Amino acid sequence: MVIGLEIHCELGTKSKIFCSCPTEFGAEENAHVCERCMGMPGTLPVLNKKVVEYAVKAGLSLNCKIANYSKLDRKNYFYPDLPKAYQISQYDQPLCIGGYLDITKENGEEKRINLTRIHIEEDAGKLIHEDYQTLLDNNRCGVPLIEIVTEPEIRSAEEALLFAETVRNNLLTVGVSDCKMQEGSLRFDVNLSVMPEGSSEFGTRTEMKNLNSFRSLKRAIEYEYKRQVKAVEKGERIVQETRKWDDEKGKSFSMRSKEDAHDYRYFPDPDLVPIILTDEEIQKYKEEMPELPDAKKKRFIDEYKLSEYDAGFLASSIEVGNFFEEAIKDTKNIKSVANFLMGDISAYLNSNELEFSDIKFTPSNLAKLVNLVDKGDINLSTAKKVLSEMFESGKDAEEIVEEKGLKQMNDTGEIKAIVEKILNDNPQVVEDLKGGKKKAGGFVVGQVMRQTKGKANPGIVNQLINEILGL
């Protein structure tokens, strides 16, 4: 399998790349348009300076060389969703040159994926097909994009997925895009070919465009690889073409023959001056860069003694990493905070299809929950219930425990009476315990927890069982 990725990312500027129309998602159709982004005769584009800044920072996050001189070009072919019928992009002199990202695979193997370039361009509009007609929403015309192009060095769906996820995390960290795939802010094009093992001659590639989820990316790669292998083994010729991925059917379908660069008839845009950046300007952008996920992961391992997996998870998102570091200011139990973020909190967000930014409680509140468990005021089972209530109401952990009377029973005398009664009522369990059957202890603890509505301290229950039976 030989894969090259093209990742299209909408930049999070307030206005479009060549005009002052807003870029906000979800507006009424054709509300965010003007003469410039509609390509009316006599109008001139003006480059948004913020687009250049964001593209440079994206490039720096992916180890690119930033060009002191780059230019904008016209890319020509039939665009049903671009009113002026050409796209302003960059051809032979892009803003960001080269670059690379290191990924770590599941087996621990590290691999470097090199980039060819990152260039800026404008997005096209959106075609809506319904009731035997095609409607055109031009709101997205002129929204600024960067296109991240890799070398054909990816050799599996796993590598493609890891690379795409790492790119997304870096872009979110530097704050150049919201990367919301469901809104089209991040889209993947897959160029894929197959060749015999040991060969160095690439096969004919196909391109699958506009994959807008990691799941689609993985499934599309796996399907297209099998399709091509099957065709080659039958002696069929692979055609260079653009294919559409149908996520519902789990298949790709031929759309059109794939163009080469000369088919686009690129030429420098006569209405736009070159982009010239001094070394001082590039250095200023470098100094404004935040800590990137890979550096943060290494720091988390060194500073907080976290495992590589835990550090990688917490550092992968700027929101999660910041939440974690704020929370551990108010508790000594770093590992417990990490466990809640990776476990219950992550599971709740996924099952309810929520973003991390939707969390209503504060990092300090999570720290309070951890401290309540550590002090023995509540057990872990109760903590999970409290956390669920925190998600719903945003209330303080201590307040929820007080309001609902969830404080753990630590009164040895009260718990002892309950344990003794359960042991007296279950002589077989007593025999099993004395015979070394540890599962019987779980039965007793379960009965105590049921009678105390989950409030009894499990540690005290186990201690009392051993004391009463002289174990």
UniProtKB/TrEMBL annotation:
Family per similarity comment:
Belongs to the GatB/GatE family. GatB subfamily.
> PANTHER family, per this entry?
GLUTAMYL-TRNA GLN AMIDOTRANSFERASE SUBUNIT B MITOCHONDRIAL AND PROKARYOTIC PET112-RELATED, GLUTAMYL-TRNA(GLN) AMIDOTRANSFERASE SUBUNIT B, MITOCHONDRIAL
Species assigned in the record:
Anaerofustis stercorihominis DSM 17244
Q: Name one GO biological process term.
A: translation
Superkingdom of the organism of origin = Bacteria
Keyword tRNA processing listed? The answer is no
Query: What is known about what this protein does?
Result: Allows the formation of correctly charged Asn-tRNA(Asn) or Gln-tRNA(Gln) through the transamidation of misacylated Asp-tRNA(Asn) or Glu-tRNA(Gln) in organisms which lack either or both of asparaginyl-tRNA or glutaminyl-tRNA synthetases. The reaction takes place in the presence of glutamine and ATP through an activated phospho-Asp-tRNA(Asn) or phospho-Glu-tRNA(Gln).
Which gene produces this protein?
gatB
Q: Does the keyword Nucleotide-binding apply?
A: yes
What is the name attached to this protein's record? Aspartyl/glutamyl-tRNA(Asn/Gln) amidotransferase subunit B
Q: What keywords sit in the KW lines?
A: ATP-binding, Ligase, Nucleotide-binding, Protein biosynthesis
Q: Which Pfam families match?
A: GatB_N (PF02934), GatB_Yqey (PF02637)
